[in-house]
Amino acid sequence: MSLELKNVSRTFGDNTVVKNITTSAAPGEIVGLLGTSGCGKSTILRAISGLDNDYQGEISINGNTSKEIHDTTGFIFQEPRLLPWLTVLDNVTFGLKGKKQEKEKLARQYLDSVGLKDNEALYPKQLSGGMAQRVAIARALVTSPEILLLDEPFSALDAFTKMQLQDLLLDVWKKYQSTIVLVTHDIDEATYLCDRVVILRGQPGEIAREITIKEPRPRARGSKLLADYKSEILDSLDLNRAHLLSS
Fold first, then answer.
1. Strands, sheet with 196-201, edge to edge from the N-terminal-most edge strand
2. Could you tell me the mean pLDDT of each successive run of 10 residues in the chain, 247 residues long?
3. Distance between CA 51 and CA 38 in Å, rounded?
4. Where are the domains of the chain?
5. 153-172 burial, b if ≥16 CB within 10 A, otherwise e?
6. pLDDT value, residue 242
């Protein structure tokens, strides 16, 4: 499913957070929105999802323009946001329509996809951070979204769990071929996961540059080409000098 943003701006009172954002995502493409804190990455994501419709400009999905919440989009937040009184299975089926048996069958399919086949009876307090985020991924996927929006979904996790879930995301993407828009400020994550990286700068945030990651998948995290892309992104953010000083 294709996504297109034309001159999207968002103002809160007298404060303009993002300005004249024009970009797109092709069907099945993974696009990263990357920039330092405060440049409006999450604001753009909320506008795409329809959670925030008080923006200027135009957002269209498959050529259809609407400011409503889109049934064809799924949203994964930084925190899992699970309902603590429901089991893993019930969290995934929550909000689904249809017969209970059909909903649970579908939920089990997606729990299996994220490696939680034998954990459906657990409650959120019994889950590790990585397991809870896997439940959140399954909950987003169970509605079969054609566009999957992720707002720094792995930033609260330790490095090893983060890498495991990044690989899980790619496995899920290969299987379901959703168009993905990923908000991140992790450059390594962006170059490893994304087909294209949209770099935002400033306050209000504006697009400084778009970089296409041409290394084929599967990618090696320590590859020379990804290191070159990282340096290019740091240059675009004027962070290479600070990066070198802190190395």
1. 73-76, 147-151, 179-184, 30-34, 196-201, 206-212
2. 94 95 96 93 94 95 86 90 97 93 94 93 96 95 92 92 94 91 95 97 94 96 95 86 41
3. 19
4. 3-81+147-246
5. bbeebeeebbbbbbebbbeb
6. 45
**Alpha helix stretches (DSSP H) within 68-186:** 88-93, 100-113, 129-141, 159-176
The architecture in CATH of the region 3-81+147-246 reads 3-Layer(aba) Sandwich (3.40)
Q: Is 18:8 a contact under the CB 8 Å cutoff? A: yes
Contact 57, 7 (CB under 8 A): yes
- pTM of the predicted model as reported, rounded to 2 decimal places: 0.91
For residue 204, say if its preceding peptide bond is cis, omega within 30 degrees of 0: yes
- The SS3 of residue 83 is coil
Phi-psi region of 151 (alpha: psi -120 to 50; beta: other; left: phi over 0): beta
Q: Dihedral sign, CA of 233, 237, 240, 243?
A: negative
Residue in this structure with the two tokens 């990282």, named with its chain if needed: 230
